[in-house]
Design a protein that fits this description.
By secondary structure, this protein is α+β, with helices and mostly antiparallel strands. Helices cover 50% and strands 15% of the residues. The chain has 14 helices and ten strands. Strand 2 and strand 3 form a beta hairpin.
């Protein structure tokens, strides 16, 4: 990461710790875990525990829970550094860091005692959020007026929930979840959806399949299945029917963390491209001495730097919304970073020629990873429409 983006001595110290963690723990393990045939086997509890040992896993929590209370820019920097080592590891941690911070803000004291206090002391604990359904994904981002399919029927003392979520990051690994459930049948999801705290092991809740993904394989995505699962009143987060408000109020940095993850992949690809261009001789001289390649490597740098600046601006304004928060910043940084990463991935593959297609060189994994965020955390075209709605409606 360019030093100019590091603002404080504390950030420098945190990022140096993260870089050592990536070099010593993530990078040596990532290729073998990525190659696992069983999608569930790509996940590493050892990596999570090692992240906890150096303070990464809980850094967004306040000191009350043993965290550092890191702001959004610092967290985005950490997420990027993790993704330079491996995208899946970055996603596992980014989800957990984001949700830990949100839960400390959104949960009441009693809910925090039942969840965050336990999570903070579990060195292998991670968190998840359940929104996406088989036929409700981009609908949430716009949002489309149809309700969620996962529905909670009112009963004495709470709700009986039936339905399914899928593609859920950390879905099969999390100890606690925030899940969004339709509690009012005749209202669109933006008006009839309720956020609930879910504990692992609740009767009627089970894990379905772990999705077999093309890339980002060190992070597990899974189905959450609800079969007559009882959610008590005390598990409601915020107000009944106001789940969408929880998303809007507490998630301003979510898009930026996704952007930081995919930006880390772009950085890793750029480093590969430079390394290979210096090594490979073609036409009597190293590739880096050919004007076309030199210019392309610099264009990659421009795309990375511009994306990072956009991410950091969005993060700072998310934490200081009275200074000019623009709602499009909750949608567009991920689009920009993912498009930049995909362009850099294809260029890096071309620079490597036939060698880039061989798994042992390491570009192939990064290309698969780079594809992930063209869709993850919102399909890019949908996010453009979301931003357009903020601008023109």
């Amino acid at each position: 990461m360019e030093e100019m983006f590091i603002q404080t001595d504390e950030q420098r110290a945190i990022l140096e710790t993260v870089r050592r963690f990536v070099a010593e723990v993530v990078t040596p393990k990532a290729p073998a875990l990525d190659a696992m045939t069983d999608p569930a086997a790509g996940y590493s509890e050892e990596i999570v525990a090692a992240a906890d040992a150096v303070g990464i896993r809980t850094m967004t929590l306040s000191e009350k829970y043993g965290g550092l209370g890191t702001d959004s820019i610092t967290t985005a920097m950490v997420v990027e550094e993790l993704a330079i080592g491996d995208l899946g590891t970055s996603v596992v941690m980014a989800q957990t860091l984001k949700l830990a911070h949100i839960m400390e803000q959104a949960l009441n004291a009693e809910q925090q005692k039942r969840s965050l206090a336990i999570f903070a002391k579990d060195p292998k604990g991670v968190l998840a959020i359940g929104i996406t359904e088989p036929d409700n994904a981009s609908n949430y981002f716009l949002p489309f007026p149809t309700p969620m399919r996962t529905f909670g029927e009112r009963t004495k003392g709470g709700w009986i929930v039936n339905g399914m979520k899928h593609f859920i990051s950390n879905g099969n690994r999390a100890s606690f979840y925030l899940v969004f459930i339709q509690t009012e049948k005749n209202k669109p999801m933006a008006q009839g959806m309720t956020c609930f705290l879910l504990e692992r092991g609740r009767q009627g809740f089970s894990i379905g399949r772990v999705h077999d993904k093309m890339g980002e394989r060190l992070a597990n995505n899974a189905e959450l299945i609800f079969q007559d699962c009882f959610f008590p009143e005390e598990n409601v987060v915020g107000e009944v029917g106001k789940g969408f408000d929880v998303l809007a109020h507490f998630f301003p940095s979510s898009n930026s963390y996704a952007a930081a993850s995919i930006l880390g992949v772009a950085v890793a690809l750029h480093r590969k491209a430079i390394q290979w261009a210096k090594l490979r001789v073609q036409g009597g001289k190293p590739l880096i001495e050919h004007d076309g390649i030199r210019a392309q490597l610099v264009e990659m740098k421009m795309l990375i730097d511009a994306s990072r600046s956009y991410i950091h601006r969005a993060c700072w304004l998310a934490d200081h919304q009275d200074q000019g928060w623009d709602k499009t910043l909750g949608a567009l940084p991920k689009v920009m970073a993912s498009q930049a990463a995909w362009k850099i991935a294809t260029w890096t593959l071309e620079i490597h020629g036939g060698s880039g297609y061989m798994k042992e060189v390491g570009v192939e994994k990064l290309v698969r990873d780079a594809a992930a965020f063209l869709h993850s955390d919102g399909v890019n075209r949908t996010l453009f429409l979301k931003a357009a709605n903020f601008m023109f409606n």
